[in-house]
Amino acid sequence: MRAGHGRRHQGAGRLKASGGTIRTGAEVDQVLIRNGKAKGVVLAGGEEIYGKLVISNADVKRTFLKLVEEKELPDIFLRRVRNFKIRGSSGKVNIALDSLPEFPALPKDSPAYRADMHFTDSIERMERAYDDRKAGRWSADPFLDMMIPTTLDPTMAPPGKHFMSCFVQYAPPKIDGRDWTDADRDGFAESVIAQVAQYSPGFRDRIVHMEVRTPREIEAEVGLTEGNIFQGELTFDQLLFNRPVPGYAQYRSPVGGLYMCGSSTHPGGGVMGAPGRNAAAEILRDLAKPTLHMSPAHDVI
Amino acid sequence: MNRHVKTDAARTLAQSHFRTPPGCGWRNIELLVPQRMRRAVAGPAVPILLQAQRVDARLEGVPSRLSPTRFRLCSQERHLPWLLDSAIGYEVSVEEETETVAGLALQGPTSFAILRDAGFSGVEQLKVFDLAEFAHDGATVTISRTGFTGDLGYELFVPAGKALSLWDRLMAAGELRGIRAIGYTALNRARLEAGLIVANADFTTAEHAIRADRLRMPDEIGLGFMIDLDKGHFNGRRAILEARTKKKLRHVLVGLEIEGNIPAEHAIVYYKKSQEVGLVSAAMWSPMAERNIALASLQRPYGDTIVDELWVEIYAMRELQYQKLMKKAKVVQRPFIKLDRRTANPPADF
Amino acid sequence: MTSSDLNWDAIVIGGGHNGLVAAATLARSGRAVLLLEAGNEVGGAARTEEFAPGFRVSTVAHLLNRLHPDVVKTLELERHGLTVEHGDFMPSVALSKDGPLTLHGAYGEVLTGASPSEQSAWKDLRAQLLRYAGVLKPFLSRRPPGLGGMSLAEMTGLGQTALALKRLGKEDMRDFLRVLLMNVYDLLDEQLSDDRLKGLLAFDATLGSHLGPRSPTSLLGLYYRLSGEIGGLAGAQVQPKGGMGAVVAAIRAAADKASVSVRPASPVAKVIVEKGRAVGVVTQGGETLRAKAVISAINPATTILELVGSREVDTGFVRKVKNIRMKGDAAKLHLALDRPPQFTGVDAADHKGRLVAAPSPDHVERAFNPSKYGEFSPEPVMEITLPSLADPSLAPSGACVLSAVVQYAPYALREGWATGKPRFLKAIMAQLETYAPGIGATVRHFELLTPADIEARYRMPGGHWHHGELQADQMLMSRPVSGWSGYDTPLEGLFLAGAGSHPGGGISGAPGFNAARHIIAMRA
Fold it and tell me: In angstroms, rounded to a whole number, what is the distance separating the alpha carbons of residues B98 and B301?
């Protein structure tokens, strides 16, 4: 796809066209609740915005442990939200390159240059990378999901230049139980660069700029608790009727008028929009409004 | 359709090669080859169906016996892992030769004459299902008198590096006899007239079936005659036995002759014009048989004990409009066309 | 080849405890039963043997914690010499440099050595674990539910499970479903804070399997442990008087009483198959023995691939059987000691208990990591018993026997056990020395059985005491393989009755008992 995930802007356009309003730079500080019903939100600057419904796309921990006061929630729900596992496990390294890196293992002009590349040639290496993560460190020999989007869409970089996107596992939310430091972040980036350079001679010399996101940056920039990109681990105990927590797997919450629509809810993370779509359907059902205008899921063949 | 000579290069097959010591009795090969088709030494290449443990026809393929202990299996799908697992407990070595051996089918009435003219002397000795080795371009080509057309024909196997020179040799020898390459559509028509079935067209193989009830037993696709339950254990024996004794064979594959001349491809078959009883999997107007023929899978007892009052619903496209036809069908014997030249000895010059 | 004219109703292959239970149960139904044991003595991995002059030990299984009550009752094992009294229950002691913590009674009815808040958290967690394991418990004595074509009895069984779930109440049922396939590490983190207690539980959950506490579904191991009971109390554990061999002796006595013919030193070479039906066996001595039913209480893969032979079964079945994971990770250490060791901070009574050296879940996880790569744990975790303290007959006067299950010792050690074994012993002794300083100097004799040794000595492939990993994909209707979990095999007349079948290993007798009841019910 050209311009990466730019299609979300189309979604924004559609929202506006349907009469919606988007406000940016409007961090929500609190959900306003009166008599157990959500009435609106309070922005970080203190502004109060009222609405009939509040639908939170933030993760379930952020929503119910930060935006909603404890007293509004039943104990058992709070306990389950606290037990929700949302430990980050990945990081991202975006690298601006002066020229296209070479991979001697590939034939010249191989279509693999435009593909998703991995350097981990055994499951043991991946498993050992995970051992580091379990011990509270980033992986010394990580496994990368690497691609060079500019081989498909040259407009993403100045002419002749390239951009490399590395999805990196593993990066724990904390290092040895303490917060990430800048030095940790640089060490994490170095593990990535070192691995790519092993397979691509001269790689370091091509690097113009780097943008490194550990779980710390992911949480700070996007608000994903503990930097978990799926807004919650996708393990059996947090899937289907258990997602995000037992008893509240259908986008509703203990607070009337407050719904969830993020990746913390079923079916989970990944750029697919399914939680949002399903949430909308449930909300319309609560409002006794039709859902005929929603495109149906495909027939199962 | 030109039924003269066809080289069917488009039929790319997966091939495996295996060796067994004499008397090894590898269940998938010897046990399923019908007795009457066995020959002691070189020969036979017989289409067989290899079954899996459940009710499914897991493995289709045509084995050739290259020597008393060497076999080649040509199949539509790759089966190496399954063959390897089937070899456990036997002294069998299996190797994949899909990429190293090229297969070519030379089919049609002049196929013998072309091989002879191309210099494969001795090829006239081959009876149906026989095979022999011949010299070609410093290598060996294995020629078997087999094919998938129901016509006189041969299948040639040669090291992949010699495929082009073999092709050229045949094309040169056959030029004046009208040799030409054909594609799948032509082959499909020929095989249908011969009443031969194709995996994943006329039945669904286990590897492809997502729904358990779409699998078919050999008895349900007209291959029950190949099963000999007295030969000891083979894959699927218990399932077949159980299905037969518990009357669980729910389908039957039949040849149909349909009135009119509109091909009934993928048409629904009805009993008394109203009750759905099956589906046509392949159909054509046969210019050679001058009949409107089809293969269909029906739900027993229809097609089995009840063969009257079968109707086929055909949607004929007429100038961007469907015309629905309800045509009478009767169950007929396969093959739809039987060509004496397929088995004639010696093979006829043309 | 000689041929016996005698036609047996049933031939049981393998005189381990499950084979004995199956044989005795079948014989009590009036069947003429022949049991063939390869070794010179019955008992299999439940034997008590001399490992050094004057020192005896239960060489594989050393604790009794799940002998099924139906087995005890049906075979009248108490009349045959098996006694378990409440006072026999052994405590579990979590060893740690910070001082021990002890679970008393049946799996910690009382917890000592922990803070009051931890004691209260443990009380809740223990109750919860026993409640949830209790929901699964009825499955132990039933054939696993079939996926297609269930009988009325099976439907009723499942219905009862649904009812049991409902009886938990809505919120408890929700938690049951949430945690069912969780890893034990995360669950412990949610509810407990004492590393010693968490380490002990993490150890118990992963004991006998190729899992670390953080491996998905590792909690199931703890449920399996707690679904067992002894003396009517779930989670309890005892060391039988006279060692595990005494349990075998009681089952053997029941078998003898029921007129089972037991033939030791009679390894079976082959199961005879005629027209797809098992009709008898040929012994390695060449004797042909025919029977209406052949019941194999040995390993399922050995049974199918070696005794039956892959030629008699379909490729798909062979594939499934070959894919059963059964590479053991547990070694067994026996030490003949000059005198009883002193574990630091552990009182005299607790020395008679089960001493667990697994100081934290992270420690257990770190011990597990190398086993993934074919290496043993440099700091192994273990379960230690000193059986001669309670039963002085096991050691010379004043001396002491130490019996320990040690993890992780991968069956296929990359460097090979020839060189690995002395290094592993050193690693184990280093751990023991930290908990019982001076113990090394009192070792008179040692025996370390790696999974490779256990395989060779007890004919257990992979040296795996469950005869197949006891993990979610190899449990219930997938044990030993999917489609064939109800003790039947594709061969009519051939049944499986060993630990490789549902519900699994441990000295329970359940697989043998369930298989026998199934055979009796189908009048085979």
Answer: 41
User: From the list C177, C190, C369, which residue is nearest A242 (CB)?
Assistant: C177
Domain count, chain B: 2
Give the structural domain span for B161: 6-190
C172 in contact with chain A, both atoms CB, cutoff 8 A = no
Domain at A32, CATH number: 3.50.50.60
pLDDT tens across C358-385, in order? 999 999 999 999 999 999 999 999 999 9
Closest CA to C269 of C289, C251, C297: C289
Per-residue pLDDT, B156: 93
Indicate whether B19 and B161 sit together in one domain.
Answer: yes
Q: Decide if C501 is inside a domain.
A: yes
Interface predicted TM-score (ipTM): 0.93
Number of continuous H segments (helices) and E segments (strands) in chain A: 8, 9
Its domain, for residue A270, covers 8-85+228-286
Cα distance from C227 to chain B (closest Cα, Å)?
35
Establish if C209 belongs to a structural domain: no
CA gap B222, B239 in Å, rounded? 16
Q: Cβ contacts (< 8 Å) between B88 and chain C: which residues?
A: 305, 310, 318, 322
Q: How many domains does chain A have?
A: 2
pLDDT at A5: 55
**Domain-located, residue C436:** no
Within a domain: C493: yes
Is residue B18 a part of any domain in this protein?
yes
Which position has the higher pLDDT, C321 or B87?
A: C321
List own/partner pairs for C412-416 with CB under 8 A and 24 or more apart: C412/C327, C412/C374, C413/C374, C413/C375, C413/C376, C413/C450, C413/C452, C414/C373, C414/C374, C414/C375, C415/C375
Which residues are B280's β-sheet partners?
B296
Is some CB atom of chain B closer than 8 A to the CB atom of C437? no
Asked if C319 and B236 come within 8 Å (Cβ–Cβ), the reply is: no
Q: In 3D, which of C136, C503, C193, C206 has the Cα closest to residue C381?
A: C206
Residue of A nearest to C185 (CA): A134
- Closest by CA to A56, choosing from A30, A74, A37, is A30
What range does the domain containing C47 cover?
A: 3-51+65-82+242-324+467-521
Q: Collapsing DSSP states into helix, strand and coil, what is residue B255?
A: strand
A contacts of C178 (beta carbons < 8 Å): 237, 242, 246
Give CA–CA dist B62/B46, Å, rounded.
Answer: 6
What is the Cα–Cα distance from B103 to C362, expressed in whole angstroms? 59
Tokens of B230: 């007295």
| Secondary structure of C415-476 as H, E, C letters | CCHHHHHHHHHHHHHHHHHHHCCCHHHHEEEEEEECHHHHHHHHCCHHHCCCCCCCCHHHCH
| Chain C residue closest in CA terms to B31 | C311
Per-residue pLDDT of chain A (301 residues; tens, 9 = 90+): 455 555 455 677 878 888 899 999 999 999 999 999 999 999 999 999 999 999 999 999 999 999 999 999 999 999 999 999 999 999 999 999 999 999 999 999 999 999 999 999 999 999 999 999 999 999 999 999 999 999 999 999 999 999 999 999 999 999 999 999 999 999 999 999 999 999 999 999 999 999 999 999 999 999 999 999 999 999 999 999 999 999 999 999 999 999 999 999 999 999 999 999 999 999 999 999 998 888 776 665 5
Closest CA to A66 of A32, A31, A37, A94: A31
Read off the DSSP letter of residue B112: H
DSSP for A105-155, please give it: TSPTT-GGGGS-B----SHHHHHHHHHHHHTTS--SS-EEEEE-GGGT-GG
Last residue of a domain, one of A222, A244, A262: A222
- Subunits next to A (3 or more Cβ pairs <8 Å) are C
Whether B147 and B296 share a structural domain: no
CATH code of C18's domain: 3.50.50.60
